[in-house]
Amino acid sequence: MSLVTIIDYGAGNLHSAAKAFERVAAGLDDRPVIEVTSDPDRVRQADRIMLPGVGAFAECKAGLDAVDGMVEVLQERVIGGGVPFLGVCVGMQLLASEGREKLVTPGLGWIAGAVEKLTPSDPTLKIPHMGWNTISVLRPHALLAGIPTGPDGLHAYFVHSYHLVTDVAETLVATADYGGPVTACVGRDNIFGTQFHPEKSQALGLQLIENFLRWAP
Amino acid sequence: MSLKTRLIPCLDVMGGRVVKGVQFVDLIDAGDPVAAAIAYDAAGADELTFLDITASHEGRDTIFDVVARTAEHCFMPVTVGGGVRSIEDIRKLLLAGADKVAINSAAVNDPDFIERAADKFGNQCIVVSVDAKQRLDQRVGGDNRSEWEIFTHGGRRPAGLDAVEFATRLVARGAGELLVTSMDRDGTKSGFDLALTRAIADAVEVPVIASGGVGSLQDLVDGVKQGHASAVLAASIFHFGTFTIPQAKHYLREHGVDVRMDRAA
User: In the annotation, is A185 catalytic?
Assistant: First the structure.
């Protein structure tokens, strides 16, 4: 039986994420076990790893760093071992080289780029970018398979004031439009991240989680 | 711009059961909040708001169970308001599955609390409830005051604060969204206080949810078009079946408001 760990480092809506993963897992043949954990040894044994995160970049990074051995295990398993990885919201932003929210903070550096404040071209647009938006896929990806996208597609739930601006175009998988392109999904190899919340995005989110649980990068 | 206007049904909860107050008195018990949440989720509601109106008194812990059970069934954003007074209250609600908390009295009494909460959990999950009434005295504007003042305790207690000034100040302290409720209109079915909604929406950078007074589907359109709200909240028109969520979404779309139709076909 495969193990999916959702990392608990004191930042995030873990109950919602766990419930959404459990709902999807129950419908899969191999019934993967969903475990919320702050134990690096459990993460080391995981077949898939999900990193949630809400709040500010610097606080989340400090929270992750404060879990003894966690960043090291993530490096070992995700970068070294090729374990499928999904980062959500700030858990996705943490993949960047650095965050520029309040202060400049180094990230995990897995997706080259920086987390920067949204600057919609229309100054009347509200910040945070909060609510349901459609996404446009720039590069087809297994995690978006079977999901209707584009202006007439399904919607994803966003709530953020910053986004990950990638340095390498190939790592930008999907965008939303909010007075200009806003990073919605990033990815490379066995690493994927969504700025929106799959666990709060109804049909689109559950399909993305299912795709992640089936993903063999 | 393809961000959609949000339609938010609100469930007033007391002791773990749904009620809807008309002008915050005369409560009618009308159901199980989790069942209602599941129905709204299936109907295509964009978010759900629970207002725990028992919060100031006993039975406080029932809301955590309601939120946790809702999160098991509904994969949509949930906001919880009512009696949120401490960092620990917020942490427990977020851990139970809430995405945002709406804070009223504590924001009035201690604006520092909003700053601490926003620093801790992020601005995006801190909603400040702006409960406002039109002033009884007419000396408006002479000292930069707006027409409205802030009330707490379900509209019973005047706070002696100007509503627009309060809203602007709390956004500066870290509120990521404002839930603007006209205490004059709440429960009256006579429409939002559009001037109040617009005065605040135009003054702040963050999204405003219009609340209080919806009686018709046109009221929802007016809240967006005239009130400049990013989201519209209603309780009784949905809860008592006067209109369905899909009916409201079709009406909004037909009247030029861009809404999410994923489940409202």
Answer: no
Is residue A34 within 8 A of residue A6, CB to CB? The reply is: yes
CB A36 within 8 A of CB A18: yes
Q: Would you call B76 an interface residue with chain A, using a CB distance cutoff of 8 Å? A: yes
Residue in chain B closest to A158 (alpha carbons) equals: B3
Looking at the partner chain, which of B77, B99, B123 has a beta carbon nearest the beta carbon of A128?
Answer: B123
Question: Do A95 and A193 form a contact (C-beta atoms < 8 A)?
Answer: yes
pLDDT tens for chain A, 217 residues long, are 899 999 999 766 788 899 999 999 999 999 999 999 999 999 999 999 999 988 889 889 999 999 999 999 999 999 999 999 999 999 999 999 999 987 899 999 999 999 999 999 999 999 999 999 999 999 999 999 999 999 999 999 999 999 999 999 999 999 999 999 999 999 999 999 999 999 999 999 999 999 999 999 9
Beta-carbon separation of B263 and A203 below 8 A: yes
Q: Are strands A48-51 and A85-88 parallel, antiparallel or unpaired?
A: parallel
Chain B's closest residue to A148, CA to CA, is B262
pTM for the whole thing? 0.94
